Amino acid sequence: MDENSISTTKGFDVSTTSSRDSNQNKCPAQSALKRLERHAAGIYEEVDSVSRSISQQAYRIEQMEQQLENAHQRIQKLEVELQTRIFRSMPDYQVSDASISEDFLVIRDSLCEWMEGFPDIRSFTETLDNAIHRRGIDKNMFTFPRELQLEFDHAQTEILTMISFGIIREHVLESLVGVPLPTEYRRLLIFIDIENINLWRSDTVRAYATTQAYKDKIVQHCSGLAGYLRGFFGCFSFEEPFDWDQKLRRLEKQILPQIAALALKLSCSPERYYWEWYPDLDWTQPIVFHKRNLSNFITMDAHTHHTLNPQTARFANMQDNAPIGVVLLILYPALFRLVPGSQNDILIQKAVVVIQGYESLPSNLKAKVDSLTTKE
């Protein structure tokens, strides 16, 4: 074989091989590109399908939300209509001042009787402030004239009664008179004409008071308050033992429910009431109690624990400004019914005050009382 043939053969082989390699390099890239294009098209179709599905679901959700809102408004309207029918079917709630006065007297008598059952307390005057401090009781509630501290032992029952009633008033009479209604009851008040707000509030409270939730609240409230008072009395050392459980059981099961019932009666009435503790009294000096004051208060003597009768012969020949004694404490507040637009509110029950009689005052305090009386 000559050189030309060898050269030609080699040249053919190189050209053919180069062309085949180039085609082989191009085909896989094109195939991969086509596969990617098909894959991308499939993904786009899936995304488009999902997007359409999401839009459809969002539209359905929006429709359902609108239906729920319409249903909620319908329920509210039906609640108001139902409550209105209930209220209209109720007889008018009228509570007389005499009825409230009688209930308050029963409560006062029950609480005083319960308190008198405690034995005497050792060193009562010395331990009173400590008991008030330990139980976190507001000292502003007890503004005793310090000149009369020696008389605390004589007025042990009255002082403990005042403290107990002050706590009960705060946690039962005042907290339950403004009954915190559940949301569904409060919502009804927005539909009420302002002129009839008291009547509707009264009816709403009455409706709520029939529920088991309110009854359970009263039981829980009375139980907790009885436990709190037990803690307060536990700060003292008594001269004789007594049955704690029986005494607290009567308070929890009998006396406190009576007070809660009075609070509910006041709440259910369309009238408004308030307790008067005479906060403007100046306890930094002796508060002289005159004969003329006997007609404005129910007055008890700290020594005898008896109520003073202004009609007795003892007071018959006294001048109206004659000093009877010095006020030791206000045992029970006065109860008034508010008369809108008038300064003459209706007195339902007088306040009960405890005094130290003029005859039993120490000589220095008696001289101070005489001086104050002369200045009037």
From TrEMBL:
Residue stretches in coiled coil: 54-81
Domain of life, per lineage: Eukaryota
Record keywords: Coiled coil
Extent of Polar residues compositional bias: 1-28
Region named Disordered: 1-29
Name used for this protein in its record: Unnamed protein product
Organism: Aspergillus oryzae
Lineage: Eukaryota, Fungi, Dikarya, Ascomycota, Pezizomycotina
